[in-house]
């Protein structure tokens, strides 16, 4: 390039919502790069979106931008291009003459203005249309993520070239030969020109410069091989060594006709059996979803510094992989990922059905556009070493043959990346196509599940939602069964099934599998997690940009209308602590699985749309919510994760505790002969300890360290202990909380007036000043919510609506417990303020009573946190004065939980409390009020 003319700054602006055409004169202006919304142009939006953030200046239509430029004499006859880094559908005019239209959503628009700019002043006019897309655009245009903005972001410039220049430079690195094969196209005559290439190491403290090499060009289709030398360093997530290639086209006189700087990394990312490999060494993808959510701007940043900030935060939580849901980020994201060592997977902007000519609704134009977008992404970003994978879209249906054809075309075009048919395609009836390099999904049949949680409409639910907590679960049997299973046939009268599609329900045609699906390629678990937290209303003040959290304001108002506004912070913190624990079990199950090649979290950060899915440990700004530190998160999400396998978290005194210790390990340095130290402690006092030598073995990624056995001590009270695991001389450690209970705690019901329902006898006792313990059968409580331990999946209002439209059970929708753990009823039952594993059996055998109509002063001792749509006041354990007596109400099945040590201990503590002087309820209820609750 000879010269770059920066066009950033003031442009004239006209908004044309009705698309009537440019009406002169211009009456407004804007500073580009920008969006009309971020610049607060147009009508202020008074709408209040409840399911997503509200764009305060949302605009859809034509936006006209104009700027006068002056071309100097030395540039007037040169090839010239208008470069718009990121925009929508653009049409360009120079001095009123139309140049052309471009419509890529994922890559820069480069309009050829050659011959249109003579010496002197010219007016460049750009029309940006954010309505007439060739496809819906997935998360590139969604109000749920970056919004359907209008404008131009990133670089806005005129690029001038000599009459001989090179374009479309593609670099193909070979980490074994330490070479870079370069292809490009020479525009103009190749006579008396040579290509000069040099390289320098650019990303770490190591200095390595590669000498310049000169190439004679024998064709305008350039193809040369640049030798990097034996000392050249390789690129990976652990060692992201980068080189900047300096490529110059020079005349024999020495004049530089054109120059380019290309960032590369020597790497080979491959599918090796059921694993991914980087430069021949296995790697495990610890991924997160990204939908380009940026609440302060409403669009994705195009500066490297902001992407470095974001991705460094992700790296601090152990993330080494980004999957971009139906979108592709700007080049700055790839550069940041290159620098930090993050594996990137952009995705075509499509979420729907890929058809062929046999389909009634086939749209060839849309399909051609999507395929062309894939090629454009490969050309624009394919040189980046971080760009290792590409997906054809999200949860696609349709023609398997056409999907396979598209995959083959891309693989033939660019072999630097791995490709997949899409993310979670065909949902309940998945397939692996011939051209798939890897598979990303959630199941291999209806019951072969390999993630921990699911929506109710996608039941069966996952093990984190339904199974007794322990650390034994892995997905190896689900991925490759040890025995052949029967293929589930679709019903004979129909081949159509209902599926969740975004925020809606759709009916699709599904084919019955002919045989059991056994993967032969790497498997990634799709969108794992989705454990919701209650909103943090303090976050509202952070929305100072173009997007406003009016949904949060609605949720806050709803809570306050129920008289529960004072509990907002407690709901947020305690639901968040439970969500963090659910994520820990979800992730550990993934790391325990030998046949899994990686996972993609949904998500480390909150998702602002689709009903408002606050599923992150970080908020939408990538700021910590204060629920868990990065250091603790990395103990179950990193390149080295210690794992202890044991059956459960609750034990009786004197039992034998046994745990198999494993290590998921993907570092380069050997761990052989290191020493693992283990210790069980209670309040800092060691109960048992020992050491295990880490053995050398055939599998260096899944290491069986050994087994520890401990005779648990006799205890007189419920005791919380901590199992600590540490590998000496490393940063690798893990802690687990366990609970020990006195052996065979006797339940003394003597003197307790126990009632399963309210009757005349209970009423008479209360009128005479007696106390009663009311433990109704949970199944009899009609005005109640089912008990479930795990926090809500994704977002209650979205999946309630989908389940209702599919005539399926709606989600429970609760978000864990808020416990008054200082209350004297817990004198003999240790508890945090949030749900922990001693509560699992209690909660799963309960129903919480809806207390919305009771006195606001009646605050349950154990309250189930409801979601932000219903905001019920839910009581699992509460007390009141009735008449002259006192009542303690528990809505759990005491008969079932009494078979567990934690259940007996809980009942024991309740019985002791009812017998004690501390039983002093402060809220008065009328008999009829209490009876109405049941």
Helix coverage percent:
10-25%
What is the gyration radius calculated from CA atoms? 31 Å
Average pLDDT works out at 95
Percentage of β-strand residues: 25-35%
Distance between the termini: 79 Å
Helix/strand structural class: alpha+beta
> How would a crystallographer describe the biggest sheet?
9 strands, mixed
Q: How many β-strand runs?
A: 52
Overall geometry comes to globular
Low-confidence stretches: 490-494
Helix segment count?
15
Overview features:
nine-stranded mixed β-sheet, 52 strands, globular, six-stranded antiparallel β-sheet, alpha+beta
Describe the structure.
There is one protein chain. With 934 residues, this protein is α+β, with helices and mostly antiparallel strands. Helix content is 16%, strand content 32%. The strands form 13 sheets. Strands 44, 45, 46, 47, 48, 49, 50, 51 and 52 form a nine-stranded mixed sheet that branches. A six-stranded antiparallel sheet has the order 3-2-6-11-8-9, with no helix packed on it. Strands 25-24-23-35-33-30 form a six-stranded parallel sheet. It is globular. The N and C termini lie far apart (79 Å).
């Amino acid at each position: 390039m000879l010269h770059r003319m920066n066009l950033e700054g003031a442009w004239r602006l006209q908004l044309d919502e009705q698309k009537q055409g440019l009406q002169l004169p211009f009456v407004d202006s804007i500073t580009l790069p920008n969006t009309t919304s971020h610049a607060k142009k147009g009508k202020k939006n008074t709408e209040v979106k409840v399911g997503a953030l509200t764009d305060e200046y949302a605009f859809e239509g034509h936006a006209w931008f104009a700027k006068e430029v002056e071309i100097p004499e030395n540039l007037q006859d040169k090839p010239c291009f208008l470069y718009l880094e990121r925009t929508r559908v653009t049409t360009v005019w120079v001095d009123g003459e139309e140049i052309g239209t471009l419509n890529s959503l994922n890559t820069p628009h480069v309009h050829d203005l050659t011959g249109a700019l003579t010496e002197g002043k010219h007016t460049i006019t750009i029309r940006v249309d954010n309505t007439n897309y060739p496809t819906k655009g997935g998360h590139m245009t969604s109000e749920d993520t970056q919004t359907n903005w209008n404008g131009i972001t990133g670089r806005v410039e005129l690029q001038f070239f000599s009459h001989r220049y090179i374009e479309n430079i593609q670099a193909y690195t070979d980490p074994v030969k330490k070479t870079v094969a370069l292809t490009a196209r020479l525009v103009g005559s190749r006579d008396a020109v040579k290509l000069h290439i040099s390289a320098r190491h650019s990303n770490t403290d190591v200095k390595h410069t590669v000498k310049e090499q000169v190439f004679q060009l024998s064709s305008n289709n350039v193809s040369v091989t640049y030798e990097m030398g034996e000392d050249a360093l390789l690129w990976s997530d652990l060692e992201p060594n980068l080189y900047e290639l300096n490529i110059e086209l020079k005349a024999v006189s020495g004049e530089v006709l054109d120059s380019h700087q290309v960032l590369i990394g020597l790497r080979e990312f491959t599918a090796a059996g059921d694993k991914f490999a980087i430069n021949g060494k296995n790697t495990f993808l610890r991924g997160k979803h990204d939908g380009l959510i940026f609440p302060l701007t409403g669009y994705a940043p195009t500066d490297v510094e902001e992407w470095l900030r974001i991705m460094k935060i992700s790296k601090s939580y152990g993330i080494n992989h980004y999957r971009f849901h139906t979108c592709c980020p700007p080049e700055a994201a790839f550069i940041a990922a290159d620098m930090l060592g993050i594996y990137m997977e952009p995705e075509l902007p499509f979420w729907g059905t890929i058809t062929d000519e046999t389909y009634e609704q086939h749209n060839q134009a849309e399909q051609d556009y999507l395929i062309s977008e894939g090629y454009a992404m490969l050309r624009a970003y394919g040189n980046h070493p971080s760009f290792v994978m590409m997906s054809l879209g999200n949860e696609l249906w349709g023609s398997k043959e056409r999907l396979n054809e598209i995959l083959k075309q891309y693989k033939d075009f660019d072999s630097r990346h791995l490709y997949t048919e899409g993310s979670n395609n065909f949902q309940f009836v998945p397939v692996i196509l011939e051209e798939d390099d890897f598979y990303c999904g959630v199941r291999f049949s209806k019951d072969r599940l390999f993630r921990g949680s699911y929506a109710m409409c996608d039941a069966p639910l996952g093990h984190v939602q339904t199974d007794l907590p322990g650390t034994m679960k892995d997905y190896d049997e689900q991925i490759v069964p040890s025995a052949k299973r029967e293929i589930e046939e679709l019903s004979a009268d129909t081949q159509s099934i209902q599926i969740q599609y975004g925020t809606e329900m759709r009916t699709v045609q599904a084919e019955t599998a002919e045989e059991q699906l056994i993967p032969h390629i790497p498997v990634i678990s799709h969108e794992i997690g989705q454990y919701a937290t209650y909103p943090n209303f303090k976050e509202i003040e952070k929305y100072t940009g173009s997007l406003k959290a009016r949904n949060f304001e609605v949720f806050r108002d709803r809570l306050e209308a129920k008289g529960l506004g004072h509990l907002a912070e407690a709901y947020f913190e305690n639901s968040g602590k439970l969500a963090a624990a659910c994520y820990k079990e979800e992730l550990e199950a993934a790391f325990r699985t030998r046949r899994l090649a990686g996972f993609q979290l949904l998500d480390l950060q909150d998702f602002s749309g689709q009903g408002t899915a606050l599923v992150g440990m970080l908020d939408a700004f990538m700021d910590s919510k204060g629920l868990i530190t990065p250091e603790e998160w990395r103990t179950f999400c990193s390149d080295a994760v210690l794992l202890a396998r044991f059956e459960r978290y609750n034990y009786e005194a004197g039992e034998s505790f046994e745990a198999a210790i494993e290590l998921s390990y993907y570092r380069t340095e050997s761990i052989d002969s290191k020493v693992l130290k283990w210790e069980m402690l209670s309040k800092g006092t060691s109960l048992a300890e020992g050491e295990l030598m880490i053995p050398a073995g055939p599998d260096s990624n899944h290491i069986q360290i050994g087994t520890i056995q401990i005779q648990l001590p006799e205890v007189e009270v419920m005791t919380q202990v901590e199992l600590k695991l540490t590998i000496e001389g490393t940063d690798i450690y893990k802690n687990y909380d366990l609970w020990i209970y006195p052996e065979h705690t006797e339940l003394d019901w003597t003197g307790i007036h126990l009632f399963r329902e309210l009757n005349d006898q209970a009423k008479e006792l209360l009128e005479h000043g007696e106390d009663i313990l009311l433990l109704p059968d949970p199944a009899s409580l009609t005005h109640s919510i089912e008990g479930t331990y795990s926090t809500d999946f994704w977002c209650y209002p979205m999946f309630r609506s989908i389940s209702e439209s599919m005539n399926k059970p709606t989600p429970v929708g609760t978000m864990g417990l808020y416990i008054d753990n200082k209350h004297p009823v817990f004198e003999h039952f240790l508890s945090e303020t949030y749900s922990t594993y001693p509560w699992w059996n209690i909660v799963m055998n309960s129903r919480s009573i809806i207390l919305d109509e009771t006195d606001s002063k009646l605050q349950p001792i154990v309250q189930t946190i409801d979601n932000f749509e219903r905001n019920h006041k839910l009581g699992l354990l509460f007390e009141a004065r009735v008449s002259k007596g006192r009542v303690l109400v528990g809505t759990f099945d005491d008969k079932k939980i009494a078979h567990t040590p934690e259940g007996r201990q809980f009942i024991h503590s309740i019985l002791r409390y009812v017998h004690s002087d501390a039983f002093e309820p402060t809220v008065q209820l009328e008999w009829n009020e209490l009876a109405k609750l049941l």
